[in-house]
Amino acid sequence: MSIKEKFLKHPQIETLLTVRGNPRIALYTEPLWTIPFFLFTPFVAVYMYALSLTDVQIGFVASVLLFSRAITAIFSGAITDKLGRRRATFIFDTLSWSIPCLLWAFSQNFWWFVIAASFNGLTQVPHTSWICLLVEDVKKGSLFRIFFLLHLIAHASVIFAPIAIILVSQLTVIPALRIIYFFSFISMTIKFIILYKYGGETEVGKTRMKETKGMSIWKIMGGYGGILKQIFTSGDMVLALIITTVFNITGMIHGSFFGLYVTGTLLNPEFYLAWFPIIRSAVIVAFLYLVQPKLNKLGFRNPMLIGIFIFIISNVLLIYTPERSFSILIVYILLDAVAFSFVMPRSESLTQMVIEPSERARISGLMMVVVLGLSIPFGYLAGWLSYIDRRYPFLLIIAFLVVIFIVLLASKKRLKAIKTE
């Protein structure tokens, strides 16, 4: 068999080529969102710092974002059912990404970022509605492959990150990020339009739109008490909730303070920040393509435990990295990428596997309310810890990872039945 034939016969590549309907359009247009996202993400905190925001203010902006997401998440399921998955995705993607990208492009001070974070928090509606578009017409056994492909496409998009390196090294952070954010506005908006024009409503979505026709959002939310009871009486959903909360908090802390730590404390040049996602994503893509299919025989739990252990080791290494030590930072990035590849596709697919399909929108929305509500204080707390010592937020990350490692150790029987095929 030739290399081309082997490539095309790879399970996930075969899925990408054969998938139809909404999943196909959603996956194929994803680079229009992921390319700009990975261009600006490494520089978010550094950009805010360059515009005179303090560590505490940066942490506060992160908490505002989480608060806005938590409030929006309360209504996200009802809005998704009322408007339909397709229309809710278009309207709220535009509000939560197109508008914030323009605000970030022209930001002048702390308050611009607070307002942008408030709009960006509306992303919880399209988070719910877009996931429904992606998975509701897919067989349950294919969910892991869909989320695998999502990560593969996202991280392959990082090949464009050198654009950010060139812009930052030539123009400095502020003018470079203004250009990148404006480009993000254009690219993301085009994606939203394509998905709306060529996508369709899911079968579950059509049913829920009929059932909620003539009902107010408040009336649709009237059954939330029963949905919450359903979540907290399901051991599987509680486990998914704990895992999602921990990774939401640790991801928020890392995204908010890694750039400041690397440039401000370890004294590395700012343009280095764009190299890290390139290296990280190259490892993730290679791992997902070459290694991931072979891990399926290990089940769900064991790869998660391995990945979390590597995450812990990588953060310990980061804390003890000497100043201007680029080589050790590269080792950290490599470890982080491998850990991510073990953990994240499984973590994200777990939630969708345990949710009742007919109530996916409302359950997803309420689960995220809980996740975000628990996460809100940690943005400000991490900012306060960073103000004291920029290593401390990463100690907090390690503490959370140890907790989730213990939880997974104690969940052997529950996770034994989870399949990744």
Describe, in plain words, how this protein is organized in 3D.
With 421 residues, this protein is an all-alpha fold. It has one domain (9-416): MFS general substrate transporter like domains (Growth Hormone, Chain: A, Up-down Bundle). The chain is built from 23 helices and no strands. The chain has helices at residues 3-9, 11-18, 21-29, 31-40, 44-50, 55-83, 85-105, 110-120, 124-135, 143-156, 162-171, 173-198, 203-212, 217-220, 224-232, 235-265, 272-290, 292-295, 301-319, 326-354, 360-388, 392-409, 412-416. α3 (21-29) packs antiparallel against α12, α6 runs antiparallel to α21 and α7 packs across α9. The longest helix has 31 residues, at 235-265. The protein is globular.
CATH topology: Growth Hormone, Chain: A
What's the main sheet like?
none
What's the helical proportion of residues? over 70%
Architecture, according to CATH?
Up-down Bundle
Oligomer: single chain
List key phrases describing it.
single chain; 23 helices; Growth Hormone, Chain: A; 421 residues; mainly alpha
Set out the fold topology:
Layout lengths: L2 H7 L1 H8 L2 H9 L1 H10 L3 H7 L4 H29 L1 H21 L4 H11 L3 H12 L7 H14 L5 H10 L1 H26 L4 H10 L4 H4 L3 H9 L2 H31 L6 H19 L1 H4 L5 H19 L6 H29 L5 H29 L3 H18 L2 H5 L5
Helix pairs in contact: 2-10, 3-9, 3-12, 4-12, 5-16, 6-7, 6-8, 6-9, 6-13, 6-21, 7-8, 7-9, 7-12, 9-21, 10-17, 10-20, 11-12, 15-21, 16-20, 16-21, 16-22, 17-20, 19-20, 19-22
